[in-house]
Write a structure and sequence with these properties.
Number of helices: 6
Shape: globular
Strand content: 25-35%
Distance between the termini: 52 Å
CATH topology of the largest domain: Alpha-Beta Plaits
CATH superfamily of the largest domain: Pseudouridine synthase I, catalytic domain, C-terminal subdomain
Number of domains: 2
Radius of gyration: 22 Å
Number of strands: 11
CATH class of the largest domain: Alpha Beta
CATH architecture of the largest domain: 2-Layer Sandwich
Amino acid sequence: MYSENKGFGQLFLGYLHTMHRYRLIIAYDGTDFAGWQRQPAGGSVEQELEAAFGRAFAADIQITAASRTDAGVHARGQVALCQTELQLDPERLRQAWNDALPTSILICSCDVASDCFHPRRNVQSKTYHYRFFTEQPLPFMARYGWYCKRTIDLEKLRVALNGFVGEHDFRAFCKAKDVQGSTVRSIHAITLEYVECFGWYQIAVTGPGFMRHMVRRLVGAAMFVASRPAVSVDHAQRVLLSGDPNNTLGRAPAHGLLLYTIRYKGDL
């Protein structure tokens, strides 16, 4: 009898500790955050989401994101996996969680995640947008794009950006101390367009994955050559081939970068 009760108790405890999994798409204004990832001093998007979940449901969660965006970087399509012992209707979970969050973070969608889903696996492509202004923007727009005071040669900019498309060793465009393993990456496409309703130019960069600071350094390099008549458009290519991460081409400011969307293999 004791062994039977013990077995039932173990089964019951196992049921209580079943982790329920939810796939989230999250948008946030990164201006006032120390990036996505947990920081010793607090202030990250991840920590704000965890704290808001605790306020809404008096429970803990485990949350893992597809991209660990840096301080000041924004997101429209961050993908995350939330795991909790609570079994909740996804839409009610989304609404109650949003009610507890600051207006700078929004859970756009919430669905039950399959057992095999992980936000950093089976990624088909990530698309980042980088926005810049050639004229001083309105104050409430300035936090979402880089105001470049130099005159930009847009055709030169396009040529410089197109030189990064394809598979290359991008060691010259990552943070040197963060380099681990191969620095070879593929870029599927880079486009440049003017978005009239916002008054900014938008660079869209798509590829299966990027190293830390890589997109901002690519944009910074292309903007460097496009804003200096005396610098050849081939200069960025020479730096790419050099593999030197300590080059002087610079890095575009964080506040112009937006994680736009992430697509997974098998998604419709």
